[in-house]
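Render this sequence as a predicted structure.
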Amino acid sequence: MLYPGTHRRPHLYRLDVVYDPEEETMEDYPEERCIRLIRAAIGIPDISVTIKKVLTWEMAARVADRFQQGRVLLVGDSARVQPPSGGLGGNTGIAEAQNLAWKLAAVLRGEAGPDLLAT
């Protein structure tokens, strides 16, 4: 998938290529191959391309075994990892912190028992 640049860097693009890490490695993506893939994605076979960086990343979804240990409570990226699709990581982390904040405030004010923090 080809992602366009931003208003600050309109000539900078990113191309994501899905591959099976059990069948290919980074060595299978030399600069010449990457340039061919970019040109094919753009549809312009002779466009000038400069490669800034070739990186790998792994899509992951993980959740902590527990969210509380004594007085330590986990929210956001410390509690879970989620795929970047939809850009929901930051929003989810903020919502988790807000959810914990009102519960923690209720417990500290004596309006609820500590079991509320486990919900």
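Summary. The longest helix spans residues 89-108. The CA atoms of residues 66 and 72 lie 11 Å apart.
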